[in-house]
């Protein structure tokens, strides 16, 4: 076949994932390049990629046309978004890419609307009788009792834990409810927090779920994590994904396992999460499975392929380039 070129949008700091994509092409005996796209010129992953393309911001009316142009020029076979904010836009414009031979790894519009808007996510959980922290209406907040605290205030369109605050009094609640843009108020729950990477094949079947216990986070992204083979969490995540209108590829599902053993879900992100390298190192090779499916090969995805009790301990590293390269 012709070269299998991959474009990663919002490449940012996803150095590990781009390195793995390059390695995967070699292992599958495919010629091709991994290309990074970002709105800035200083994304670390751009200097690991085979090529680095500067594109407009997602908010720009030229964003989709710019990506289509890149895909056409570079003969892109697969486009992978690494951020939440352009997923809905890509789902709406998927056909523009399809006609030029580019497969966009994205769920459909309805699924992205459920996942991106956390109010919609809450309603999806409630409608499907999936345990989730209660979200308070404005009327309920007027009648809130001191015994109901602490509560969680967060933006319904937020990402990477930006704007998330735990409040312990009515005074704090009133302040942060106005301070946080697009705020919603939820019940605050405790327990072990898990981010679960799930692979859903192109026929819509959940093939593998890897729960990752979040031991430590930094800037909203896991810095220390541990794979945990928990059958109850795996079954619960599978049920969540089966209830979505259309899931495909890497789905990242966040939940808490509480002291009484109950599992409560808080978010669904239809993309590669920041902690996905742990899942890959454990043996669940999502990028490989995606490429296998798109090239007509046998997809090797299965539930028993990954190692339990494998830890990831992240640290800072540097990429040194000339100043002129990022201006």
TrEMBL record:
Enzyme class of the recorded protein, top EC level: ligase
GO molecular function: carbamoyl-phosphate synthase (glutamine-hydrolyzing) activity
Keyword Glycosyltransferase: no
The enzyme's E.C. designation: 6.3.5.5
The organism's place on the tree of life at top rank: Bacteria
Alphabetical keyword list: ATP-binding, Ligase, Nucleotide-binding
SUPFAM superfamilies xref list: Glutathione synthetase ATP-binding domain-like
Matching InterPro entries: ATP-dep_AA_Ligase, ATP-grasp, ATP_grasp_subdomain_1, PylC_N
Domain ATP-grasp: from-to ranges: 122-295
PANTHER family: ATP-GRASP ENZYME FSQD (PTHR43585:SF2), FUMIPYRROLE BIOSYNTHESIS PROTEIN C (PTHR43585)
Record-given protein name: Carbamoyl-phosphate synthase large subunit
Species classification: Bacteria, Pseudomonadati, Pseudomonadota, Gammaproteobacteria, Oceanospirillales
């Amino acid at each position: 076949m012709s070269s299998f070129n991959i474009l990663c949008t919002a490449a940012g700091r996803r150095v590990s994932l781009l390195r793995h994509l390059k390695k995967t092409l070699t292992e599958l005996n495919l010629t091709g390049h991994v290309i990074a796209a970002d709105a800035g010129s200083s994304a670390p992953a751009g200097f690991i990629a085979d090529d680095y393309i500067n594109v407009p911001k997602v908010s720009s009316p030229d964003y989709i046309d710019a990506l289509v142009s890149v895909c056409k020029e570079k003969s892109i076979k697969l486009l992978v978004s690494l951020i939440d904010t352009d997923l809905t836009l890509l789902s709406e414009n998927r056909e523009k890419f399809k006609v030029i031979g580019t497969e966009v790894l994205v769920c459909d519009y309805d699924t992205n609307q459920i996942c991106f808007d956390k109010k919609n996510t809450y309603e999806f959980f409630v409608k499907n009788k999936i345990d989730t922290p209660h979200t308070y209406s404005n009327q309920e907040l007027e009648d809130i009792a001191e015994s109901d605290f602490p509560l969680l205030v967060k933006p319904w369109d937020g990402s990477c834990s930006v704007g998330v605050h735990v409040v312990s009094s009515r005074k704090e609640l009133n302040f942060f409810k106005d301070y946080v843009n697009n705020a919603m108020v939820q019940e605050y729950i405790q327990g072990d927090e898990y981010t679960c990477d799930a692979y859903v094949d192109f026929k819509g079947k959940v093939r593998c779920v890897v729960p990752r216990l979040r031991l430590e986070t930094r800037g909203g992204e896991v810095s220390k994590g541990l794979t945990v083979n928990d059958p109850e969490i795996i079954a619960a995540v599978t049920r969540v994904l089966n209830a979505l209108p259309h899931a495909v590829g890497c789905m990242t599902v966040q939940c808490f396992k509480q002291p009484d053993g109950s599992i409560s879900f808080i978010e669904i992100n239809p993309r590669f999460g920041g902690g996905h390298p742990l899942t890959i190192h454990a043996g669940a090779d999502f990028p490989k499975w995606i490429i296998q499916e798109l090239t007509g090969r046998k997809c090797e995805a299965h539930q028993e392929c990954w190692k339990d009790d494998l830890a990831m301990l992240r640290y800072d590293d540097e990429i040194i380039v000339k100043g002129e390269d990022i201006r």
